[in-house]
Amino acid sequence: MLEYAWWIWVLMLFVFTFFLGILAVMGGVGGAVLFTPIVGGFFPFHLDFVRGAGLFVALTGSLAAAPGLLMRGLANLRLAMPLALVASTSSIIGALIGLALPTWIIQTLLGIAILIITIIMIKSKRSEFPEVTKPDKISQILGIYGIYYEESSNKAVEWKVHRTLPSIFLFVLIGIIAGMFGLGAGWANVPVLNLVMGCPLKIAAGTSKFLLSITDTSAAFVYLNSGSVLPLITIPSVLGIMLGSFVGVRLLVKANPRVVRVIVIAILAFAGIRSLLKGLGIWV
Amino acid sequence: MKIEVPKEQIIYGKILSYGSKISILAMAIVFAVYISGVLPHYVDFEKVVELWGKNHHTFVEETGVPKGWEWVGLIGYADYLNLLLLAILAFLTIVCYIAILPVFAVKKDWVYLTITLIEIVVLLLAASGLITTGH
Known about the structure:
heterodimer, A: two-stranded antiparallel ribbon, globular
């Protein structure tokens, strides 16, 4: 790896994450899912510190977006809280597994996980208003239902959910993956909320973004207390992604979403292959 | 068209809004202080660069940085002041959960009151430093 002064690395990280932030917003993905495999694959930092930073990248992005989503009713607290409890508990387990396993195994598994995420992004269909004929017992007991204002049709949309129990089990898995690899989990939250539980797409996307702030908090604490969070890596990354997301939102109206999505998927696939080959010692 | 948003959701959103804005702004300022060298560093930049390619066990061993919450005693150092702000950012969720407890209590929503309490315990347990990796 090239020997640069510390500040050149910090500057490169900041500039890189700034562009990553723009791309993430325009591609409709969270920053951490791009950050962790790319920075872990191409920067000289150990994966422990990249994952620690990745969790804070996801956490900050979520904390910044959540207030608006909650107050406009586009994220739902009653829907999020039971799932967040399961995911935040399992993300602690994921963080412990991730920090205990040898680096090459984590790097290889990260590559596999990113390639699977890429396939999910290509294959998964989304339903704007899924049909839920009858809410299940658990969601009725928990009172998970709601109403939101749909601007495009100028209508109030009522929603309810089903298949709560299988979704809770899926969130156990999502939490473990988030904690283990230092990823946000929007790529998994949205399909489960939308396609499994039957939430309207806007509620699924908004609640997913909010959920990350709880899921990633518990794992972030484990990384912080284990000495796996370096401010010199984490803070420029967080600030770069935040600033990039801010610019990305403004560029969003001018961009072709399909083209941007293809670019994001191509980058993810490349980062996944790089991570896999680095883990297996083929491309170090 | 006005859609009514539950009270607990508004409280949660407002705390997050102020908390995250203040924390991120403070983080940017304190990071500038860190890289400017105005405050002393517990671990020199050169040492960080030397060790950032090694795993966290090696970093902790070779720099002698504390694990768990012992680092709070080092916030006079710029690197740990930065870490404190990251910890505050992570604590925001716990603050929000504590703030919505009374709303569920007043509503006599025992199920969500219980979920809120358990989540606070889980997050505090994660924050406590009791759950860390051994060598």
